[in-house]
Specification:
seven-stranded mixed β-sheet, alpha/beta, Rossmann fold, 9 helices
């Protein structure tokens, strides 16, 4: 199999797709995305006053939902580099306790506070493994003791045994790095980099997972 380079990734969404990203997500999931993401954010078990770090925060849709749980006492910091995504984020989430940082998440981060929770949604699969490791280390280094890392992304499954639509979507439409992500043992990877116990929630017939790892 030909090696996939970071340059082949589709993780950095720009242009018209970025400006209308939330609408596109609703369409390609046949209208199920709004209820799905609300359920996933609820399953994170956020609490009032918690500090949340959102890596690759995109349009801010998730951050607005998380704000309902952490309240005005909490803090949400989104990290994003896409011009159009940042514009949508600031339009959607212009709140005093929601911050936006223009940084690459696959470069070492030295943030000004420690967070209770780090979150990454359908972004981690878009990086080669060496960059995923940097992202994981960034989370570990910026979490409080006993903090948790919630990864909302594809679950591990045998793509060859999946239905036609799933197989077509992963291999022909999705980021070329998605299949590599699906084929890896993420609990072992996270454990080897310093995380311990795990909790899991599943969606879309177990094709998607919210994997939470504890520092």
């Amino acid at each position: 199999m030909e090696e996939i380079r970071q340059e082949d990734s589709k993780v950095e969404v720009t242009g018209v797709e970025a400006k209308h990203y939330d609408t596109f997500m609703n369409i390609i999931t046949l209208g199920t995305y709004p209820s799905f993401i609300k359920k996933a954010i609820k399953d994170m078990n956020l609490e009032k006053g918690e500090k949340v770090l959102d890596l690759g925060c995109g349009t801010g849709r998730n951050d607005c939902l998380m704000l309902e749980y952490v309240g005005n006492e909490g803090i949400i910091t989104g990290i994003e580099i896409g011009k159009e995504m940042k514009e949508r984020f600031l339009f959607n989430c212009n709140k005093p306790n929601i911050n936006l940082i223009d940084e690459r998440i696959d470069n070492p981060l030295n943030l000004k506070m420690e967070y209770d929770v780090a979150f990454i949604s359908f972004v981690l699969h878009g990086f080669i493994q060496s960059k995923r490791d940097i992202i994981i280390d960034n989370v570990l280094n910026n979490l409080k003791p006993d903090g948790r890392f919630s990864i909302l992304d594809y679950n591990e499954f045998d793509i060859d045994k999946a239905g036609f639509f799933t197989k077509f979507a992963i291999r022909k439409i999705e980021c070329p790095l998605a299949e590599d992500f699906i084929n890896r043992d993420w609990k072992s990877i996270l454990k080897n980099r310093g995380f311990s116990k795990f909790k899991e929630k599943y969606y879309y017939k177990r094709r998607v997972r919210l994997l939470t790892a504890f520092k």
